[in-house]
Each structure stands twice: as C-alpha cells, then as structure tokens.
UniProtKB/TrEMBL annotation, chain A:
Residues 13-78 form the MrpA C-terminal/MbhD domain. Its main location: membrane. InterPro entries: CPA3_antiporter_subunitB (IPR050622), MnhB (IPR007182), MrpA_C/MbhD (IPR025383). Keywords: Cell membrane, Membrane, Transmembrane, Transmembrane helix. It is found in: Cell membrane. The chain crosses the membrane at residues 6-25, 32-49, 55-77, 89-110, 160-177, 198-218, 224-243, 255-279, 291-314. It comes from marine sediment metagenome. It is a multi-pass membrane protein. This is Na+/H+ antiporter MnhB subunit-related protein domain-containing protein. Residues 199-313 form the Na+/H+ antiporter MnhB subunit-related protein domain. GO terms for cellular component: plasma membrane. It holds the Pfam family MbhD.
TrEMBL record, chain B:
InterPro entries: NUOK/Mnh_C1-like. It is a multi-pass membrane protein. It comes from marine sediment metagenome. This is NADH:quinone oxidoreductase/Mrp antiporter membrane subunit domain-containing protein. One of its GO terms (cellular component) is membrane. Keywords: Membrane, Transmembrane, Transmembrane helix. It is found in: Membrane. The chain crosses the membrane at residues 6-25, 32-50, 62-83.
Amino acid sequence: MTPELLPDLTLSLLLLIMAWGALYAPQRSDAMTLFIAFGVVVALIWARLDAPDLALAEAAIGAGLTGVLLMHAARALPDELHQDYRTASYWGALGFTVVASLMFLVHLLYDDSLFNAGLLDTESDLTPRLRTLADAAVPESGVEHPVTAVLLNFRAWDTLLELLVLLFALGGLRQLFPSGQSDDSATTASWPESMTLMSAWTRVLAPLLVVTGGYLLWRGSSAPGGAFQAGSLLAAAAVILRLTGLLPPLRWSSLWLRLSVVAGALFFLAVAAATAIWGDGWLTYPGAYSGLLIISIEIFATLSIAITLSLLVIGEQEDLRS
Amino acid sequence: MNAIELYLTLGIAVFLLSLHGLMTLYDPIRRLIAVNLMGAGTFLVMVSLARRSEVPDPVLHALVVTGLVVAISATAFALRLIIAGSKNDKTDSGGGNRKP
C-alpha cells in the first residue's frame, strides 16, 4: 500500500457511495442528484487515468446532460411506486453474475499474457497490436492528437455510425409525440418563472460555453478535445438557455434546424462517397487534404451533435412536432 | 495492488452493484440509472485497460467517447418510452389513478 494510492482509494470509495446512493436513495430526486455526482467522480477518475478527452466528455455528457435529461423527464412521471421486485430466480441469477464477474476480474488481473505485458514493458511485442498500429500511423493521419486520429481517421466508420445513431434516436423520439397540436404536454413544459439567479447566471454562462466549445473543437486536432466534447458543451448552452426561457422553442418545421441536425452525417457520407468514387476507398482520405477534411467533418459534426443532443434532452411537443 | 488493478476491480464492482439494482428496483427511472451505471462500470474497465502502458491506448479512449454519446441517445429514447408508457397506463386504468 503506497501513499500514491490514497487519491485513487478515496475516489473509489466515493464512487461506490455515489453508485449505491444513485440506486437506493429513498427519494427519486436524491437518486438523480447522486447520479450527477457519480458522473463528476467518474470524470475525476478519467483525469486520474490520463484520459482527458473522456474527462471532458463525461463531465459534459455523463454528468451534465444526462442529469438534466433525467430530472426534466421525471417531472412528467407519476410518483415513485415502492414495490418489491425480487423474482423467484433472484438468488440464482445473483450467484451466477457474481461468479461470472469474479472470473472475469481474475482473468483481467492475473492473466499475464493480457495484463502484465503492457504494464511492465511498453516496448515489448506484447503491447496490443491495434494501438501499436494506431501510434505508428498518427503522423500520417492529418491530426496530431491520437484520440482524434482514431475517431475521425482510422475508425471513421464508428464515428459515422454514431452520428447515425444520434439521428435514429431523434427520429424515434419524434415518433413518440402525437402529430398535430396536443393539449396536455404543453402544460408540463414550463419551468418556474422565479429563477432569477439562474437566468442571470445563464446569461453569463452561455457565451462562455460557446467560446469554450469552439476552443475545444479547434484544439481537438492537437490536444484533448474535439467534436463530441464541443458539441455537448454547445448542447449544454442551448439546454440552459431553453430551460430558463431565454431561447424560443427550436421548431422542427424550420428548414435550418432540420438541415443542421443532418449536416454532420450528410457531410460525412458525402466525404465517404467521394473518397470511394474518386479516391483510394471508402473513408480513406487523400494524404494532403486529410487535416482539412477532418476539421471540416468535425465542424459539421459539432453542429449536428449540439442540436441533436439539445433536442434529445429538452425536446418537447413544440420543439419536435411543430 | 496498484492503481490500475484497483480501478479494474472498481469497474467490476460498480457493474455488479448496478446489475443488482437493475434486478431488484422497480421504478423505471432508477432502473435506467442502473443501466447507465453499468455502462460507467464497463467504461471504467476499458479505460483502466487502456492505461496499462505508459502512453494510454487511443483506440479504447475513442471507443469510450463513442460509447458515451450512444449511451445518452439511448437514455433519452428510453425516458421518452417510459413517459409514453406511463401515460398509457393512466388512460388504461381510468384516468389519473396513480396507485394500482
């Protein structure tokens, strides 16, 4: 047991307490608050584990937007029903999952070929093959930051499909609102008008969020940051403006809104098709232009992610069906 | 025990704890939180594995960034389904009757 382990132990203990509270707190609102706190602790752990990209994304998405999403949606739900939900197979299922997880853990911790190789000797042949390939190819990818290079060059397929997942989620969300004007959802939409402090803060916070988002987007090619972090910060700005009533409803009928929702996926697909027809293959960027292509894809993707996430989090009848 | 082994164990512990929550809790919001926590446990294992070498593995980091965005899309959709389902329940049971 070394003193360097102390912050890690503290964070681990905190995380377990937050997880327990988020699941079993007596009140549902406490559980949701503790879930947000859980996200913040996870962001700190990412920072401890040298994953600044993830710390940024987790703080914005995992803690911030998911928390708002839960609290916003919980107002539309009836009060919690306390009901014991243990089925007859409870003990068997519990035993099975505990044994399976412990076996997985032992495998992770004590299988030398998987674990110790990377830890003891970074230069050995046993470092995972993928990351050796990724590290070697970063200088040719057009960006300097390895995570951005993986996201938008080596594994661009994943990122394209992820933009499509966002689109599908939004499409699914729209189906759950009846078309035409409805009567009851409009009454639940407004938040209390008396949040003077919050609306004053929002006026300061929103421009700062936009500037920080733009900075993260631009820095993403050479340092932690990128389209997802920037997009979620912009979405957070839109969400707080919308919740305090400073921003009018984002109307789905507006052509610009629909265009910006699909802009990222469309531009990405256009680049992919262009490289497939005139270039070396699907999503293989020409070397000289890859930096430019990646930054333009990121700009369009940021716009789409920001609008889609804010619609997913606070989209109401008036946003999505009018 | 070093920090990486600690975080690997923690990831599995969070996963198990929230799986237990998913199995026993009834309130749909809490079950959704449990699913999100299971995701967080999985990400924790992945990022700890990425940290095994001196320079963290960018492939796993990129996968987790993708996973975060997919998780929030799924959560938003699930919440809307829950709300739509609870509205249906209310109309089925004769309107406004919240306790079964």
